[in-house]
Each structure stands twice: as structure tokens, then as C-alpha cells.
Amino acid sequence: MTYMLKNLTPAECSAILEQSRFGHLACCKDDRPYVVPIYFAYAKGAIYSFSMPGQKVDWMRANENVCLQIDQRGTGRGWTSVVIDGRFQEFPDSDLWREERLHAWSLLQKHFDWWEIGVLKPAEQTNTASDPIFYGIFVRELTGRTALSID
User: Fold this and answer.
1) CA 32: distance to chain centroid?
2) Pairing state of beta strands 79-91 and 133-149?
3) Residue 12 burial class via C-beta count within 10 angstroms: exposed 0-12, middle 13-18, buried 19 and up
4) pLDDT confidence of residue 137
5) For residues 59 and 28, is the Cβ–Cβ distance under 8 A?
6) Arithmetic mean of pLDDT, 53-75
7) Residues 4, 79: contact at Cβ < 8 Å?
8) In this structure, what CATH number is given to the domain that contains residue 10?
9) pLDDT surpasses 80 at 115
10) What is the DSSP code string of 53-110?
11) Nearest-CA neighbor of 145 among 90, 78, 87?
12) pTM exceeds 0.85
């Protein structure tokens, strides 16, 4: 099987992000990488997601530089991959961040299972010491490639 590799334009990368909901988030602390799956929503240069407290959030708070990778299977053995170099920004439950937090929630809740990787649906939490953490990844750079089967 022969493939043709093609670099994607920023507009093509954005279109893939708008269609996608699942990716792998990479963060780094003390020269150690950490990669986890996340559900997300994309709008106007930002990735929106949520998490419960844990290692991923701790590491992103310590180092705001993150990377998100999305892949799609193409026809045959083809594939497409988009990589986002971005900056983490937490949206605390405060007056200052209320609009951004509500915007993240409104985008994410359009999909029935958006909360699954976060363990508990935020509205279903009771008697917990932890609140969900909404955050954004503000895109610095988008790159992508696709492999097309030409046989």
C-alpha cells in the first residue's frame, strides 16, 4: 500500500477540531511527561474541557504549556492527525471567570457524554469536597498531517 502525506493548513486543522470531541492531552512537570485522554469542545481558537482534581490539573497549574493531539482514521489505512500547542487556563468558580466557565459548560454539555472521562457528571455530585475544574487550552499553534492511501 502506498500513501501520500500532506500537511494540513491551519483552516483544515480548525475544521477537524470543530468536528472532534476526543483527544490526548500532554502536560509536563519537572521534565516528566504525562498524557491523558480528554473530551473537549473547540471554539474560536480555544479548547474547552473539564476535570476533577488530580495529577493532570496539578501539573497544568505548575506548567501552563500543554499539547493536545487528535487523530482520525481515514478510508482504508489512511489517517489524519492534528497537534495543538497551547496554554492552559483554569476557569475558577469566581466572578472574574464566570462568563468563560459558563461558555465552556455550554459548549461541552451539547454532547450527552462530555463528562465521562471526568468520572462524575458535575450535576450529580453530592457531598464531595471536590468541585469540577473547567479549563481552556488557548491555541498558540496548530499543525496537522494526513496520510491518504493512493493504491
Assistant:
1) 20
2) antiparallel
3) middle
4) 96
5) yes
6) 93
7) no
8) 2.30.110.10
9) no
10) SSHHHHHHHH--EEEEEEEEE-STT-EEEEEEEEEEEEE-SSTTTHHHHHHHHHHHTT
11) 78
12) no
Residue 136, SS3 per DSSP = strand
Helix (H, G, I), strand (E, B) or coil at 148: strand
C-alpha cell at 123: 450535576
**Domain enclosing residue 78, as ranges:** 3-149
pLDDT class of 125 with cuts at 50, 70, 90: very low
Q: Which neighbouring-strand residues pair with 137?
A: 47, 88
SS3 label, residue 14: helix
Task: Tally the domains of the chain.
Answer: 1
- Alpha carbon distances (Å) from 135 to 63, 97, 105, 149: 14, 10, 10, 37
